[in-house]
Design goal:
By secondary structure, the chain is α+β, with helices and mostly antiparallel strands. Helices cover 27% and strands 20% of the residues. The protein is built from six helices and nine strands. The strands form three sheets. Strands 6-9-8-7 form a four-stranded mixed β-sheet, covered by helices on one side. It has a three-stranded antiparallel β-sheet with strand order 4-3-5. This is Large ribosomal subunit protein bL9m.
Length: 251
C-alpha cells in the first residue's frame, strides 16, 4: 500500500509543480550590497596582553558616520575611437563621467578604457599619422559652426566688380571668422551681379566645408541702401516644425 502511495505522489508532483509555476509569480531576490561606516560611542578599555577586552552593553552602541555606496563615483579616463564634437578627437585621452562612458560611449564603441595596453596601441597609431594634419577639438567646433553660416558679402553698387577670394575673406572677418585666401575655394568661375552662391573653406585636418553666401549691393547714396536692411540672419538656426492640428487633436 505504501509503495502505491509513493508512486502516485511521485507521478503527481510534476503536474503540481507545473501548475504552481504558472500561478505563483517568480521573484528574483538579490543581495543588497552596501557599506556603512560606524563608530563606537563608548570605546572599551585596554586589555592585558594575551586577553580580549571586556565588552559591555554600552560598547555595542554605534554612531552612524558615512554611507559609502551613496557617494558619487569619480570620473573615468577613456580613449576616444572617433571624433566627437564637444568632447575630443580620435585617440585623445579625455575624462568623462562614468554614466556617460558606460551608457553611451563604451556600448556604441566610441571609446575604450584607458588601460596600459590601449594607451600603448593608440600611441603607435599616432606615430603612424605623423606628417598628416592633426584634427583638434577646436577645428571640429569651427567646422560645425561654419556649416550654419549664411555669409553676406557686400559689393559696390556704383562700380563694376568680379567676386574673388579677397571679398569673401573680408566678409568672413566681418562676421568674426578669420581665414586665409589659400583655405577658400570658389565654386563659380565668375560672379559679377548680386546672387546666392556657394564656396568651400578648409579647416585644419578636416574635409572642405561648403558654405552658402549671398551678395548684396552697397551704394554711396545712403537712400539706395534699403536692401541691406532686409538681410536674412547670418547664422542659420534649426527651428522645430509645429505639429499639425490633426496630431494635436490625437494627443
Amino acid at each position: 500500500m505504501m509503495r502505491g502511495c509513493k508512486r502516485v505522489v511521485t507521478e503527481a508532483l510534476p503536474s503540481i509543480s507545473r501548475q504552481t509555476k504558472s500561478v505563483l509569480p517568480s521573484y528574483n531576490f538579490q543581495q543588497l550590497r552596501s557599506t556603512v561606516i560606524v563608530k563606537r560611542r563608548h570605546e572599551p578599555g585596554l586589555a592585558k596582553i594575551g586577553s580580549n577586552p571586556k565588552i559591555r552593553t554600552r560598547h555595542l552602541i554605534y554612531d552612524f558616520c558615512e554611507r559609502v555606496h551613496s557617494n558619487p563615483l569619480p570620473p573615468i579616463q577613456c580613449i576616444l575611437k572617433e571624433n566627437i564634437l564637444g568632447l575630443g578627437v580620435e585617440g585623445e585621452l579625455v575624462t568623462v563621467s562614468r554614466k556617460m562612458f558606460r551608457n553611451s560611449l563604451y556600448p556604441r564603441q566610441k571609446a575604450v578604457y584607458a588601460s596600459p595596453e590601449n594607451l600603448a596601441e593608440y600611441q603607435t597609431v599616432e606615430k603612424d599619422k605623423t606628417g598628416k594634419k592633426k584634427v583638434t577639438k577646436f577645428s571640429m567646433t569651427t567646422s560645425a559652426r561654419l556649416k550654419k553660416l549664411y555669409l553676406p558679402v557686400p559689393m559696390s553698387g556704383d562700380n563694376k566688380w568680379t567676386l574673388n577670394k579677397d571679398h569673401i575673406r573680408l566678409a568672413l572677418r566681418k562676421v568674426g571668422v578669420e581665414a586665409e585666401q589659400d583655405t577658400i575655394t570658389l565654386l563659380h568661375s565668375s560672379i559679377t551681379e548680386p546672387q546666392e552662391f556657394k564656396f568651400e573653406i578648409s579647416v585644419m585636418g578636416l574635409d572642405p566645408i561648403t558654405v552658402d553666401g549671398h551678395i548684396y549691393l552697397v551704394y554711396k547714396n545712403a537712400a539706395k541702401n534699403m536692401a541691406a536692411l532686409d538681410l536674412p540672419p547670418v547664422w542659420k538656426t534649426t527651428v522645430k516644425k509645429p505639429k499639425d492640428s490633426d496630431q494635436l487633436e490625437a494627443e
